[in-house]
# Entry
Amino acid sequence: MQNKLHYANIIIDDPLLKENYGFLNYQILLDLMDKHNFFTTIAFIPWNYKRTDKKIAALFRERPDRFSLCVHGCDHTKGEFGVSDIEHLDSKVKLATARMIEHEKITGISFDRVMVFPQGIFSNEALDALQLNNYYAAVNTVPMPINGHRSSNFPFFVRHTPEDIITGVTTNPIFVVLHHDYFKNGYKKLTDFVGELNTRVKIKWDSIGNILNCFSTPSFKSNNKQANVDLSGLDLYGYKEFLKILMRRYLSDLRDNYLCKNDYIFYYAKKVRDLIKI
Ligand SMILES: [Zn+2]
# Structure
């Protein structure tokens, strides 16, 4: 075992905070985190700010030693942060943040100002927009912006799959990316991975915010003053886009919670979705 202390965090993208989301069950995950010692951050889609289940909100509030939230896009539309219009990006980040603050008011669950870009797509200007809005960092699966090399000095971390980490990718902190379908055949794959990692290196599992605070000298100031924005997004996009986003979100939930449990239906539903381009 290497003696150097590593920090680690597992990030699960997309799920609503409901008892079950797709193959994920929060209570089972918590029991496993207690038993095997690890920490999970949910990359939460701000659009879902009014949809959290009270029971799961209580679970998150009671167990900040195991669960935390960070920000996953704004509406989770394809490539929403892969544009270069800084004003538009600034409005997007403001809307995402205002929704997360509203979610915190409703549920009592705080969040870290850390962005995980949907589909890993982002531009250099998107990093600038995060910096403008006092975000701590971006943690992403894709290391490169759509417009070339990273030009911003905004803190940026790459995350990896369990398979990449086990086969030798070593970073510190270790950020792990997962989706609910990783649990399709139960949780053994996850607990085997955590067990293997915990024996290889000395690890402190923690929330992304706490980990980043250990990595930089000035501690991040969280400014939870809510910008005066229309939380529905209607002001920013207009009706047509608003409806498209609404449909996309509900169809994604349908896919994750029902369709993906049946491989045959899932295949054809994906085809239909590609055809109507939502
Ligand atoms: Zn996502």
